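Deadline looming. Please check this record:
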Amino acid sequence: MQRRHSVRIVDADCGCGTLLIEAVRHARRIGFTAIEGRGIGNSPSLVGRAQAAAARLRDPAIGLVFAREDLLQALAEEAECPADILLWHGGRGADGLPGVAEARAAAAEMLIGDLAASAGGNAAA
């Protein structure tokens, strides 16, 4: 991503949005001028908290969307035009679903995650 001005980051299990919000803020601090973030979650209350936190950001360079979505469907959508970075938390039940590993690999150019948690402690990120 050297010499680039834009970045797209997807958080596959966004919870209340803290990690994705910090990731987009960090991208801004290091010089990106167009930052797009997408948080995918399944808890209405946590996604609502993430949406409220995103609404408090006042930086026009940062665009954030948090939504309750089916994980596999959202990853398939990302595969059509892969994100730059996929944040993967692992170990939250999705790893064992059929097709998740393939969808995860196709959804982004770079994976930042806890793959040890995904493999039950037997893999390295």
